[in-house]
C-alpha cells in the first residue's frame, strides 16, 4: 500500500500540520519509505495473539475523588501565547 | 580539588562529607569547564549560574546543619545536569524543539524533584534530539551535539547532550530517557555507563511524553556504581504517573559486590549475526571472554522475533507520539504562528513552523496508522507482535540470568552519514528497541574501542526488575577492567 499526494494532504490535515504543495511530494516519498519498511509486519501470523498495550500488565489505579491541586492558573497562563482575564485567546470559532 | 572533575560520585560524596570541597566549589568547577568546553560541543542548551550556585549553597547548608529528620543523602551537593525533556521549574524546558523555545516550566518533573530533594545541584539543561526522536542528536532545533571523542562524529541520541557532557567531564552525571535506546546508544557511542530501568520503575511525571508505553527515565554516568546511586534517588512510586509501579523501595547498590561465579549469560544468536561491524564484535567478544574469567558461563538463547522489533516500534512509537504531541497547539503553551486565518489554520501553521522534519514525519506516520480503516492492520498488528517479542524474552530468561550483546551495530558515525534516510537511522537502534517493547531493563557499559579509537558499548539486558543484578554484573566487570575510566583527550586537556 503506498500513499499518493491526496493521501498525504489528508494525513497532514488530520495531523494539523500545514504542508506546502512542494513539501507534499518529498513527504510522500519519505512516508512510503517508512511504510515499506513496516510492511514486513503483515507477513507475521498473529492468529490468537493478545495485543500488548503496555510493557507491564497493570490495572488502572483509582484514587479518591478529592481535590489535590491548588489553583495555579496565573503560573500556567504565564506561559501561554495569548490570554485575557484568565482566558486563553484563540481566533473566533463561532460567528 | 582540580582533579575532582573526573571523580566518581562516591569519591565526590566522600570529599563533600570530609569538607575537602564544598558544593559551591564543585558546582563552580564544572560551570567553569562548561564555559570553556561547551562552545565546541553544544551539549548544554540552558545555563543559569545564579540558580545553580543558590542550589549549591543550600546543599552546603544541609551538609553543615543536617537535613532535619531524614539522613543526609550521599548525593547531597553533587552536581548533575538534566536532559531538556524533564520539566524543571524556572528553567527553560525546550525538549530540543522550536515549539518550546520559550517555555519556562512552572513545575518540576518527579525525577527532578527527587534528585533536588536529595540535594543534587542542577548544572543546566542538556541538548537532545527534538522530542527525543533521533539516534544522532542531529534533529535538535538547537543544533547537533559533538562527540567529545571526535567532534566530527555524532554522540548518539536522543540523550546525546547528556552523553557528551559526561564524556567531556562537564558533569559527573546526567539524566536521560530511553524510548528505543536513547540512554544506551549514546552511552555506548560516548564511552559511558547508562541504564534504562524496567518500565514503571521511574515516574514519567513531568517528562515530556514521546511514546508513553515505552518512555522510561534513567541515569547516565561514568560507572555502574554511580548509576546505582542515582537510580536509588530516581526510582520509586509516584501516584501522578498512572503506570508508576507500587513496589517497595529497593537498594539498587545492594548486590554490587556479589561475585559472578555461576552467572549464566544468554547470548541471543540474532544479536551476533549479520549487521554488526567487525570492530564492535571484537570488543564485545573480548568482554565476554573477561566475563568467563570472572566465572560466568555463556549460553546461546533465541529471540526469534527480535528482527521485527524495529518495524513494530516504528508503528507503536509514532502512533503514541501523534497522540501525545497533539497537545502542542499554540494555545496553552509553546509557539504560535504570527499569522493565520482561523483556528485550524493557527494549529496547522503553528505546528508546521514549530516542529522539525523528523517530528513531523513521525506525527504523520502515527496519524496514518491510527486513522480509520488502518488501525487493525498497523497498530493492533504491531501490538500483537510486541507480545511475541516479549514472550521470546520470557523464554530466554528461563535459561539465563542476564542477556548480553552489542548496544549499537557500529561506533559513532560522522555527521550526515545517516540523516538522509530515516530508515537507516532507525536501524541504529536494532539491538536496543526490543527491551523497550518488552519493558525490560537494559544497560550499556564501555567495553573497548573500535575503528578510529571510538568507544564500543556492551549491552546487558536484565529480567523484569533485575536492575540490581544488572548493576552487579556491570560493576564486577568494571572492577576487572578500566574501559569506563578512559576519557577523551579534550576533557583532560582542559585543565
Mind explaining what this structure looks like?
Chain A has a domain at about 5-45: Histone, subunit A (Orthogonal Bundle). Chain A is flat, with a radius of gyration of 22 Å. The model of chain A has no long low-confidence stretch (mean pLDDT about 90). Chain A is built from three helices and two strands; from the N terminus they run H-H-H-E-E. By secondary structure, chain A is mainly α. A two-stranded antiparallel sheet of chain A has the order 1-2. Chain B is of the alpha/beta class and about 500 residues long. Chain B has a domain at about 1-265: Alpha-Beta Complex (Amidase signature (AS) enzymes), CATH 3.90.1300. Chain B is built from 16 helices and eleven strands. Chain B has an eight-stranded mixed beta sheet. Chain B has a three-stranded mixed beta sheet with strand order 1-3-2. The mean pLDDT of chain B is about 95. Chains A and B meet through helix 1 and helix 2 of A and helix 9, helix 10, helix 11, helix 12 and helix 13 of B.
Task: Chart the SSEs and their pairings.
The complex is a heterodimer of chains A (about 100) and B (about 500).
Chain A: H1 5-15, H2 21-38, H3 73-77, E1 83-84, E2 87-88
Antiparallel strand pairs in A: 1-2
Chain B: H1 9-17, H2 23-37, E1 44-46, H3 49-65, E2 79-83, H4 110-117, E3 121-126, H5 160-167, E4 173-178, H6 184-189, E5 193-196, E6 216-221, H7 224-234, E7 264-268, H8 278-293, E8 297-301, H9 309-324, H10 343-354, H11 357-370, H12 375-396, E9 402-406, H13 422-426, H14 433-438, E10 442-449, E11 455-462, H15 467-480, H16 489-492
Helix pairs in contact in B: 2-3, 7-15, 9-11, 9-12
Amino acid at each position: 500500500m503506498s500513499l499518493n499526494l491526496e493521501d498525504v494532504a489528508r494525513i497532514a490535515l488530520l495531523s494539523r500540520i500545514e504542508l506546502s504543495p512542494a513539501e507534499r511530494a518529498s513527504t510522500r516519498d519519505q512516508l512510503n519509505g517508512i511504510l515499506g519498511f513496516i510492511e514486513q509486519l503483515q507477513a507475521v501470523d498473529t492468529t490468537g495473539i493478545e495485543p500488548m498495550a503496555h510493557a507491564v500488565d497493570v490495572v488502572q489505579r483509582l484514587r479518591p475523588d478529592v481535590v489535590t491541586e491548588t489553583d495555579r492558573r496565573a503560573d500556567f497562563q504565564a506561559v501561554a501565547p495569548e490570554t485575557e482575564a484568565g482566558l486563553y485567546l484563540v481566533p473566533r470559532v463561532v460567528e | 580539588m582540580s582533579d575532582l572533575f573526573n571523580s566518581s560520585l562516591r569519591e565526590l560524596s566522600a570529599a563533600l562529607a570530609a569538607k575537602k570541597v564544598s558544593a559551591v566549589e564543585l558546582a563552580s568547577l564544572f560551570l567553569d569547564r562548561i564555559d570553556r568546553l561547551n562552545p565546541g560541543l553544544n551539549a548544554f542548551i540552558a545555563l543559569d549560574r545564579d540558580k545553580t550556585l543558590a542550589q549549591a549553597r543550600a546543599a552546603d547548608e544541609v551538609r553543615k546543619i543536617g537535613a532535619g529528620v531524614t539522613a543526609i543523602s550521599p548525593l547531597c551537593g553533587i552536581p548533575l545536569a538534566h536532559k531538556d525533556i524533564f520539566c524543571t521549574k524556572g528553567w527553560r524546558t525546550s525538549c530540543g524543539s522550536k515549539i518550546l523555545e520559550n517555555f519556562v516550566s512552572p513545575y518540576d518533573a518527579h525525577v527532578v524533584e527527587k534528585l533536588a530533594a536529595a540535594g543534587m545541584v542542577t548544572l543546566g539543561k542538556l541538548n537532545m534530539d527534538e522530542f527525543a526522536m533521533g539516534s544522532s542528536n542531529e534533529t535538535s532545533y538547537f543544533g547537533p551535539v559533538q562527540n567529545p571523542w571526535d567532534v566530527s562524529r555524532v554522540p548518539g541520541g536522543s540523550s546525546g547532550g547528556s552523553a557528551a557532557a559526561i564524556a567531556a567531564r562537564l558533569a559527573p552525571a546526567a539524566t536521560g530517557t530511553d524510548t528505543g535506546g536513547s540512554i544506551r546508544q549514546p552511552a555506548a557511542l560516548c564511552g559511558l555507563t547508562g541504564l534504562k530501568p524496567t518500565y514503571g520503575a521511574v515516574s514519567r511525571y513531568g517528562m515530556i511524553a514521546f511514546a508513553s508505553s515505552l518512555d522510561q527515565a534513567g541515569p547516565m554516568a561514568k560507572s555502574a556504581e554511580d548509576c546505582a546511586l542515582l537510580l536509588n534517588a530516581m526510582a520509586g512510586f509516584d501516584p501522578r504517573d498512572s503506570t508508576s509501579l507500587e513496589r517497595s523501595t529497593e537498594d539498587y547498590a545492594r548486590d554490587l559486590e556479589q561475585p559472578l561465579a555461576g552467572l549464566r549469560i544468554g547470548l541471543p544468536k540474532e544479536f551476533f549475526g549479520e549487521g554488526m561491524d567487525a570492530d564492535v564484535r571484537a570488543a564485545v567478544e573480548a568482554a565476554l571472554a573477561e566475563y568467563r574469567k570472572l566465572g560466568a558461563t555463556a549460553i546461546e538463547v533465541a529471540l526469534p522475533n527480535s528482527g521485527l522489533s524495529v518495524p513494530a516500534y516504528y508503528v507503536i512509537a509514532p502512533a503514541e507520539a501523534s497522540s501525545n504531541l497533539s497537545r502542542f497547539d499554540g494555545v496553552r503553551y509553546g509557539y504560535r504562528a504570527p499569522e493565520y486565518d482561523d483556528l485550524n489554520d493557527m494549529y496547522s501553521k503553528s505546528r508546521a513552523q514549530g516542529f522539525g522534519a523528523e517530528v513531523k514525519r513521525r506525527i504523520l506516520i502515527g496519524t496514518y496508522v491510527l486513522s480509520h480503516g488502518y488501525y487493525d492492520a498497523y497498530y493492533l498488528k504491531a501490538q500483537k507482535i510486541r507480545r511475541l517479542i516479549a514472550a521470546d524474552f520470557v523464554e530466554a530468561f528461563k535459561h539465563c540470568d542476564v542477556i548480553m550483546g552489542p548496544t549499537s551495530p557500529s561506533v559513532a558515525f560522522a555527521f550526515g552519514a545517516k540523516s538522509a534516510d530515516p530508515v537507516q537511522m532507525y536501524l541504529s537502534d536494532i539491538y536496543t528497541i526490543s527491551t523497550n517493547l518488552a519493558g525490560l531493563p537494559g544497560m550499556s557499559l564501555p567495553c573497548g574501542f573500535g575503528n578510529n579509537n571510538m568507544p564500543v558499548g556492551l549491552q546487558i539486558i536484565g529480567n523484569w526488575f533485575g536492575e540490581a543484578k544488572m548493576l552487579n554484573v556491570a560493576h564486577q566487570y568494571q572492577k576487572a577492567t578500566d574501559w569506563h575510566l578512559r576519557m577523551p583527550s579534550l576533557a583532560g586537556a582542559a585543565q
